[in-house]
């Protein structure tokens, strides 16, 4: 069995069929199916997300100690790094731990992109290929062909093709990603790291904003909903807006 | 230090844009599964690089070709136009060859030299929706369905529009219309069958609604006023014109996959290919299975039947996706057994409709070669390349 066949059997086809089946249950609305799938993906990856959030909260709590180290070993970089790592180890924190939920979502994004393109069957070839990938469930048969329209957007079209609404979607994707990143990005004691981090916080939302313009709106809908869920869970798990520099009207502090 | 970082940031952010813009997602360059048509010693076919070609069947040489281009639609690495995919099969009527293209145009080309006689809509006047199902000709009118959900009727001589449906009949129409008498029948991916006046395009009283969408174009048995067509619910439907209930649905339990392609009818028997790889012979009156035959690829795995079966004299010819040709002798001893008389492989994938004439079968392979199979000596002739790349 080739890698492509394994990929389709284990990841791509289940996601595709779940999406189509969800559309059937959700009044034939493919957009609602994408939102429902996003929630499912978020629930499945919850243990990892929780770990990431806790790690983020611990980093937040550790800031005074890190600043102390900075003051103490600011001029001796190797020593500062060594002491910081020691501190992380003692607190049981992996500074790279927050990357895992994102890495795990990459295959899902790829599979979702493929699923959206296949399920919407924007070309006759896609429709024919779809036949070979659908399960023989009656609900799946009855859902085909799917309607690509959702809230005035064609989910098979790129946001660029969609015009004003597409642009709004790109801003939502970029904006929500920026908020989410700002909430977790603990200020670094190392100015170089701080600079890199600031660049990443700006670059990622910008990149995803561009991706939104270039990829089908269905995928952008997934990103937007996923980000919003991320912000909400982060707010409640870490108890506030984290490092986002504005005071929440709900915050006690 | 700050400036190079900002520069890097911009470069990285623009990289996906640059990469993605080279792949026009909304615009498909080339492709399609146009089939073959035989007329007066020439074979006509659309190719995956947007050409309509005429091949002399005797000399097996290229007589002419015509390239159909379409705007690239946004950023596509500097190209302003790309070759248009062609899904529809050319049709020949009189001195003209007609073709509908995915660019949303219908072309009439001179049969003699491939010169464009007319284009609808005329150049500079926009496009209709992409044409996927092959147009049909009846009474001097060419009828085409389109991805904008409408049906268009054009004068075959000059391409002047006779009528178009007032509103879209479905989200998109990818099947071919079928003409019987003065009525046009159209099946939709949404699961409807509509009857339209062939003269005016007006919707007639009768229509049929199914829970699942129709994958194939209707084929009508004029003796019984019954149409046969495949559905996404993995059944083949028999629908009597005028009735709101299907005559029968085959098989009782859903088949292994969709009945994607239109069936053929002969002597009261419906022969339907299915994407599960089986060819089914079904009694047209009752929907009872007479026999079924599982077609396979070279590795013994079931291979979907994407192209409609073709009848030539007493031979039923079926080609599956893997390019294996099956010939059933409907007058032979094995006629009722569902066993092919003989099989052969052309060695290329087949998604296109094909034609058969005077003992020869003309098939366009997915590798952009024309394969000619001689049913007399059961040999596959030297494939003829249809594109420069092939």
Detailed description of the structure:
The complex is a heterodimer of chains A (253) and B (390). Chain A is mainly alpha-helical and 253 residues long. Chain A is 74% helix and 2% strand. Chain A has one domain (3-238). The longest helix of chain A has 24 residues, at 191-214. Chain A is elongated, with a radius of gyration of 21 Å. By secondary structure, chain B is mainly β. Among the domains of chain B are: 30-176, Lipocalin; 306-390, Thrombin, subunit H, CATH 2.40.10. Chain B is 5% helix and 40% strand. In chain B, a hairpin with a 2-residue loop joins strand 31 (355-357) and strand 32 (360-364). Chain A binds chain B through residues 123-125, 127-128, 131-132, 136, 138, 141-142, 144-145, 147, 157-158, 160-161, 195, 199, 202-203, 206-207, 210-211, 213-216, and chain B through 5, 8-9, 12-14, 16-17, 20-21, 25-26, 28, 31, 33, 74, 87, 132, 171, 174, 189-190, 211-213, 232-234, 254, 256-258, 260, 275, 304, 306, 351.
Mean pLDDT across residues of chain B: 90
Structural class of chain A: mainly alpha
Radius of gyration of chain B: 22 Å
Instruction: Evaluate the radius of gyration of chain A.
Output: 21 Å
Specify the biggest β-sheet of chain A. 2 strands, antiparallel
Computed structural class of chain B: mainly beta
Characterize the overall form of chain A.
elongated
Count every helix of chain B, treating DSSP H or I runs of 4 or more residues as helices: 1
**Shape descriptor of chain B:** globular
* Highest CATH level, the class of one domain in chain B: Mainly Beta
What structural keywords apply?
heterodimer; A: 253 residues; mainly alpha; two-stranded antiparallel sheet; 12 helices; 74% helix; elongated; disordered C terminus; B: 390 residues; mainly beta; Lipocalin; Thrombin, subunit H; five-stranded antiparallel sheet; 1 helix; 35 strands; 40% strand; globular
């Amino acid at each position: 069995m080739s890698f492509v066949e394994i990929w389709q059997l284990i990841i791509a086809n289940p996601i595709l069929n779940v999406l189509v089946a969800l559309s059937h249950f959700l009044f034939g609305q493919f957009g609602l199916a994408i939102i429902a799938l996003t929630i499912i993906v978020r629930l499945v990856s919850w243990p990892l997300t929780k770990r990431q959030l806790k790690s983020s909260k611990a980093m937040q709590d550790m800031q005074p100690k890190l600043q102390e180290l900075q003051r103490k070993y600011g001029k001796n970089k190797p020593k500062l790094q060594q002491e910081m790592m020691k501190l992380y180890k003692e607190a049981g924190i992996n500074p790279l731990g927050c990357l895992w939920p994102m890495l795990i979502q990459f295959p899902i994004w790829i599979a979702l992109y493929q699923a959206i393109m296949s399920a919407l069957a924007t070309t006759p070839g896609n429709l024919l290929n779809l036949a070979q990938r659908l399960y023989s469930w009656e609900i799946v048969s009855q859902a085909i062909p799917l309607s690509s329209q959702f809230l005035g957007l064609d989910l098979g079209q790129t946001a660029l093709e969609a015009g004003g609404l597409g642009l709004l979607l790109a801003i939502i994707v970029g904006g929500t990603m920026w908020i989410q990143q700002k909430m977790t990005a603990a200020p670094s004691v190392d100015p170089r790291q701080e600079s890199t981090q600031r660049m990443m916080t700006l670059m990622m939302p910008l990149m995803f904003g561009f991706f939104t313009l270039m990829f089908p709106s269905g995928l952008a809908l997934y990103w937007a909903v996923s980000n919003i869920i991320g912000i909400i869970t982060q707010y409640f798990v870490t108890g506030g807006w984290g490092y986002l520099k504005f005071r929440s009207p709900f915050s006690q502090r | 230090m700050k400036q190079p970082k900002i520069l890097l940031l911009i470069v990285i952010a623009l990289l996906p844009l640059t990469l993605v813009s080279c792949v026009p997602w909304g615009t498909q360059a080339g492709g399609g599964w146009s089939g073959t048509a035989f007329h007066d010693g020439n074979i006509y076919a659309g190719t995956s690089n947007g050409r309509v070609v005429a091949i002399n069947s005797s000399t097996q040489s290229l007589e002419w070709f015509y390239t159909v281009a379409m705007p690239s639609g946004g950023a596509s690495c500097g190209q302003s136009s790309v070759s248009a995919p062609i899904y529809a099969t050319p049709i020949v009527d009189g001195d003209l060859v007609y073709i509908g293209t995915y660019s949303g145009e219908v072309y009439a080309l001179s049969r003699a030299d491939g010169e464009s006689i007319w284009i609808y809509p005329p150049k500079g006047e926009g496009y209709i929706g992409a044409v996927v199902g092959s147009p049909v000709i009846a009474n001097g009118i060419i009828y085409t369905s389109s991805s904008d959900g409408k049906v268009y009727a054009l004068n075959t001589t000059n391409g002047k529009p006779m009528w178009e449906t007032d509103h879209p009949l479905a989200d998109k129409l990818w099947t071919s219309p079928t003409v019987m008498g003065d009525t046009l029948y159209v099946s939709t991916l949404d699961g409807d069958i509509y009857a339209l006046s062939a003269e005016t395009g007006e919707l007639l009283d009768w229509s049929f609604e199914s829970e699942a969408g129709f994958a194939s174009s209707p084929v009508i048995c004029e003796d019984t006023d019954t149409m046969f067509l495949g559905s996404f619910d993995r059944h083949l439907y028999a629908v009597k014109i005028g009735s709101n209930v299907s005559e029968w649905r085959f098989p009782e339990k859903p088949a292994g996959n969709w009945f994607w392609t239109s069936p053929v009818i002969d002597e009261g028997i419906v022969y339907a290919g299915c994407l599960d790889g089986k060819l089914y012979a079904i009694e047209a009156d009752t929907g009872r299975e007479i026999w079924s035959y599982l077609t396979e690829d070279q590795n013994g795995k079931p291979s979907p039947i994407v192209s409609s079966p073709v009848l030539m004299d007493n031979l039923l010819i079926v080609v599956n996706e893997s390019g294996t040709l099956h010939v059933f002798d409907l007058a032979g001893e094995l006629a009722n057994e569902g066993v092919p008389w003989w099989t052969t492989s052309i060695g290329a994938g087949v998604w296109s409709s094909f034609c058969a004439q005077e003992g020869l079968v003309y098939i366009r392979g997915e590798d952009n070669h024309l394969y000619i199979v001689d049913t007399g000596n059961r040999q596959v002739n030297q494939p003829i390349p249809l594109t420069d790349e092939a």
